[in-house]
Amino acid sequence: MTLSIPELEEARCALEAPLFADLAGDMAVSFEFFPPKTDKMDVAMWEAIRTLEPLAPSFVSVTYGAGGSTRERTHATVARISRETAIPAAAHLTCVEATKDEIDQVAQEYWAAGVRHIVALRGDPPVPGAPYQAHAGGYRNAADLVAGLRRLHPFEISVAAYPECHPESGSPDADIDNLKRKIDAGANRAITQFFFSPEAYFRFRDRAAAAGITAEIVPGILPVSNVAQTRKFAGMCGAAIPGWMDRLFEGLDDRPAARQLVAATIAAELCRRLYAGGVRHFHFYTLNRAELAYAICHMLGVRPGTEQQAVAA
Fold this sequence. Notes:
It is a single chain. About 45% of the residues lie in helices and about 15% in strands. It starts with a helix and ends in a 14-residue tail after the last helix. With about 325 residues, the chain is an alpha/beta fold. It is built from 11 helices and 9 strands. The chain is globular, with a radius of gyration of 19 Å.
């Protein structure tokens, strides 16, 4: 990766000064939630949304279960965010186990509810580990879904990207080709799967640029609140957990407060290194908890009542 002069100056500052000294907060942030299953989980999720709302996120997104299993809960959550907060809400939508007409109907319902941003995904098979099968009457993949959404309404559309290669992809080049198809079909930006090495993101960004992809590629950040859960997620999506990071969490299974401090430190340093490389939008996978994402944003200079200078492309 070739850094510009301002980026070189920022990188030098990051090395010579305290990592988080007087950061300008000149960045956009966004957050992902999942639809709650119980009343207790609903209360917790809304506490998290209200905690993060003063940070003026560019958007918050709500996930969609395999095979559309959370369709109603996703819609209800997104619609309520649109009604009751000032945050633009984005709804995840997948291709799995549904016809084009069924998916189009869901998209029409979102548009009618005032939702203007869709995160368009192929989706995972309902049976974990089973091979993906496109529905006979459905959208074949995420690029096909993006094109279909473009025919319906002028949605803002985000898609997924995989810095460390999708588990079903044949090669890094195949991953880039697939991303380019999604962008060429009309997606506005890509949001990456989580990763723990800034070099993985920068290498992917460089390959995408070399392939002619000019859309914004937003890094997805997962603060590690649950180590075992993170290992499971990483195994499913092909993300590598560095050995040094695994070792930092050793002995903390019964010390949640210490584990949170370690998690916040690791994720904040990752964001700081990405910032030094020119990143100005971070998307946090919150797992419906606010504390870690809030602390990281605070260290990056994103705080309530401050006008964010960066605007998501």
